[in-house]
């Protein structure tokens, strides 16, 4: 291992972290199978990996599988507020240098990314593309030795595609987010459930009867809307894409511009990957008592600097709840400093869903190592056989059997001559 140091909040939290990691492993049967195979085959033997991920119990289970596969792994946080300090401590005890402290400032956040890059990675794992973009901006001397990398989330994939389009991307990346076994489940059911969980833990609000405005009806937005509706809330969707807006309307939700929704919403949740979605004009229309939360990757979806400027007073009411009092006395409540609320105020996605996302990560890293030198510096999809295999393994683990095509059906579906 090239790195001997680490930076975590409190190493003595390790035993609590280990217990929680073990608890999450119960719900990660696919990762368990991969870990067992990796232990035998060592497909990542001696390969240096730097991983920038939310430091959670699920990430720890992925990390242990990669370690079992022979990787020399170093981790850093992919968000200043998402680290679980006990897990960071446990990772260090498992012999995995980790650089992550919940609540770290921006400077420390980037210092930690740089520490992970000092490992001189041959493979990178990223969630939001901060590690990849830092390497491309500040550590260009490392790029020639990198075999490839993986990216976990929508926002990261968008950034990487922009880099590739400008000809700036220097090594191949696989967009794990675009696997069906990732975004159909993680973004929708994972973000759906854990966003409601984060807001509930931060505020203890009753959802029943609340008017909940969900900004963005993509994979995350669909999940959040469905789960909030299940809790008895009225749902209003705001969108910029006509087809997504139409889908929301036909799914039975009210759809309107945010400036209208601003007047009636009790709880606002952004999940767009966009910037300044909730802006000054919207704050000015909101009812006193409105709660604002974000589940998109960056804390840029709610214009916090504009809110700071409008406010004549600010105080913390309880953990993850900041009260902003406007000039006319209305009070708006911002949760988790506008950072992804499911990870800031709760534990992120349930392990069962991360099982599939991280199975994609592990198998794609194996694929990159096997195909060293064969791939171009562009953004690749997850190979279909990996995606399908993860779906099959997850179904098996859930004890769900399905039908298979008969010979006759296969022939029929592969032909074009027969119409009836
Ligand atoms: P998506 O691309 O499926 O959906 C985003 C939607 O937002 C699109 O329908 C788009 O038209 C809409 N949108 C864009 N600008 C808008 C605006 N100004 N107003 C209203 N709607 C707007 O993306 P997905 O997968 O739903 O991801 C959304 C964000 O959540 C990304 O930043 C992603 O990285 C992040 N994410 C967060 C997770 C978490 O744990 N909190 C988990 C997975 C993704």
Tally of helical segments: 18
Q: What compounds are bound to the protein?
A: 1,4-dihydronicotinamide adenine dinucleotide
Low-confidence parts lasting 5 or more residues at pLDDT below 50?
A: none
Shape: globular
Fourth-tier CATH superfamily name of the largest domain: Adenosylhomocysteinase-like
CATH architecture of the largest domain: 3-Layer(aba) Sandwich
Describe this structure in words.
The protein has 18 helices and 15 strands. The chain is α/β, with parallel strands linked by helices and 420 residues long. It has 2 domains: 225 residues, Adenosylhomocysteinase-like (Rossmann fold, 3-Layer(aba) Sandwich), CATH 3.40.50.1480; 156 residues, Rossmann fold. The strands form 2 sheets. It has an 8-stranded mixed beta sheet with strand order 9-8-7-10-11-14-13-12, with helices on both faces. Strands 3-2-1-4-5-6-15 form a 7-stranded parallel beta sheet, sandwiched between helices. Helix 5 packs across helix 6. The model has no long low-confidence stretch (mean pLDDT 97). Bound molecules: 1,4-dihydronicotinamide adenine dinucleotide. 1,4-dihydronicotinamide adenine dinucleotide binds next to helix 8, helix 9, helix 10 and helix 15. The site of 1,4-dihydronicotinamide adenine dinucleotide has 29 residues, from helix 8, helix 9, helix 10 and helix 15.
């Amino acid at each position: 291992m090239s790195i001997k140091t680490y930076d975590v909040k409190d190493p003595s939290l390790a035993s609590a972290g280990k217990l929680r990691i073990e608890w999450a492993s119960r719900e990660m049967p696919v990762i368990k199978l991969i870990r067992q195979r990796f232990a035998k085959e060592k497909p990542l033997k001696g390969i240096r990996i730097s991983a920038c991920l939310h430091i959670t119990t699920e990430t720890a289970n992925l990390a242990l599988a990669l370690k079992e596969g022979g990787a020399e792994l170093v981790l850093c946080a992919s968000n200043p507020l998402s680290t679980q300090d006990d897990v960071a401590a446990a990772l260090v005890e498992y012999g995995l240098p980790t650089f992550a402290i919940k609540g770290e400032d921006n400077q420390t956040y980037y210092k930690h990314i740089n520490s992970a890059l000092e490992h001189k990675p041959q493979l990178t794992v990223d969630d939001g593309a901060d590690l990849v973009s830092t390497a491309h901006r500040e550590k260009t001397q490392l790029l020639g030795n990198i075999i490839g990398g993986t990216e976990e989330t929508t926002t990261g994939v968008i950034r990487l595609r922009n880099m590739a389009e400008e000809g700036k991307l220097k090594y191949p990346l696989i967009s794990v987010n675009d696997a069906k076994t990732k975004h159909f489940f993680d973004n929708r059911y994972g973000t759906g459930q854990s966003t409601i969980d984060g807001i509930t833990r931060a505020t203890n609000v009753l959802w029943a009867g609340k008017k909940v405005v969900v900004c963005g009806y993509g994979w995350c937005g669909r999940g959040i809307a469905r789960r909030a509706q299940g809790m008895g809330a009225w749902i209003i969707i705001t969108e910029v894409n006509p087809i997504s807006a139409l889908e929301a309307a036909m799914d039975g939700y009210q759809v309107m511009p945010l400036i209208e929704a601003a007047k009636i919403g009790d709880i606002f949740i952004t999940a767009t990957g966009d910037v300044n979605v909730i802006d000054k004009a919207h704050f000015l229309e909101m009812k006193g008592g409105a709660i604002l939360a974000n589940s998109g990757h960056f804390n840029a979806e709610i214009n916090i600097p504009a809110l700071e400027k409008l406010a004549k007073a600010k105080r913390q009411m309880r953990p993850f709840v900041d009260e902003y009092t406007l000039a006319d006395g209305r009070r708006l409540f911002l949760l988790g400093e506008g950072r992804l609320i499911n990870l800031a105020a709760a534990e992120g996605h349930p392990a069962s869903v991360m099982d599939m996302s991280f199975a994609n990560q592990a198998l794609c890293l194996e694929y990159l190592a096997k195909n060293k030198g064969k791939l171009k510096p562009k953004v690749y999809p997850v190979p279909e056989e990996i995606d399908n295999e993860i779906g099959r393994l997850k179904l098996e683990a859930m004890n769900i059997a399905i039908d298979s095509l008969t010979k006759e059906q296969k022939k029929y579906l592969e032909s074009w001559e027969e119409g009836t």
